[in-house]
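Researcher: We're teaching a course module on how sequence relates to structure. For the next exercise, students receive a sequence and then see the predicted structure as tokens, so they can try to spot secondary structure elements on their own. Here is the exercise chain.
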Amino acid sequence: MPGERVEIDITELVERSRRGDRAAFGDLVRLHQHEVFTLAVRLVGDRTLAADVTQEALVRAWKAIGRFRGDSSFSTWLYRITTNAAWTLKGSTARKATYDLDSLVRQPIADRRGDPETAGEQAELRANLDRALGQLPRHQRAIVVMKDVYGWSHKEIAEAMSISVTASKVRLHRAHLRLREMLREAR
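Model: And here is the predicted structure for the students to work with:
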């Protein structure tokens, strides 16, 4: 029927994929590719490199789907693979690319009817935050992106990064302290 919503059973698609069903894995890719790409952009700060990361992550996921145990959700497992692919590919490229936070969090700087002075202050703050975020160690930057941009729980972050929940909290706290320090210095 037109307008009828179709329920997609991720668990069934994963099980079929584990048995080698390429079509089922293709369905999983279609369901998750946008989120994988968005995470990759946020981690590497470059859309072209993020496309490579996305492709690499999906290839790695296909090769490893038979070993997926279901201890976490499929999406958490896929995000972990994406995070690892991002660090691998980013590490193999020149570190000249900047981390463009504006491209990550597409929010208007100010309403068109808003105050130009406020818009300028917001633009400056975003530029300073962009630079500071780019200077964080990658494990701290990843946690800031996952927690503050995506809103992941510490449990999800811990699973994605193979660390404890406590380590996730500590790294986020240290990253926030460092960001505050760098933003104060930028004033």
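Model: If you want an answer key for the exercise: The chain has a mean pLDDT of 79. The CA atoms of residues 57 and 82 lie 5 Å apart.
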